[in-house]
Amino acid sequence: MSENSIFMQLTQLLDKNNAKYRVMEHPTAGKSEEVAKIRGTQLGQGAKGLVCHVKGNGIRQHVLAILPADKQADLSKVAIAIGGTRASLASPKEVDELTQCVFGAIPPFSFHPNLKLIADPLLFERFEELAFNAGTLERSIILNTEDYQRIAAPTLVEFIRIEEN
């Protein structure tokens, strides 16, 4: 599957569900801060996707964990929420197999039956729109936050790392 077919799957899903969104073509940007500037969005509007592998307690589960781009994930919280004891980031090979996307271009939707979708509730509390790369580093979708939650229906899990001052 190509990055273009992921984009097609996304737009077909959003259109079928009458989502309010827009597509933006832009130069490749490697960091969340750079792409937010190019999009004209706040960093916290970015929906960052981490593909994790949860193990322990007889659990072996891949998870796509979605959080605001201005926050860091606490993978131990992801593991506990899924019922495992530990979680790690998936290998580039696993990411490719499960998402058909390169790192940094993973949309906040799971199209693979073995990839469980979770999202931190903070993602839905601050902005009316979320922004994310749409299967490629050169194309973004800016989507109504309520439409994202309704269509993707992620399991809500608090897993943002608490910053200590």
UniProtKB/TrEMBL annotation:
Pfam family, one: tRNA_edit
Domain YbaK/aminoacyl-tRNA synthetase-associated: 26-150
A GO molecular-function annotation: aminoacyl-tRNA deacylase activity
SUPFAM superfamilies attached to this UniProt entry: YbaK/ProRS associated domain
Top-level taxon of the source organism: Bacteria
Gene3D superfamilies with a match to the protein in the record: YbaK/aminoacyl-tRNA synthetase-associated domain
PANTHER family reported for this sequence: CYTOPLASMIC PROTEIN (PTHR30411), MULTIFUNCTIONAL SER_THR-TRNA DEACYLASE PROXP-Y (PTHR30411:SF9)
Name this polypeptide is given: Uncharacterized conserved protein
Organism: Providencia rettgeri
Taxonomic lineage: Bacteria, Pseudomonadati, Pseudomonadota, Gammaproteobacteria, Enterobacterales
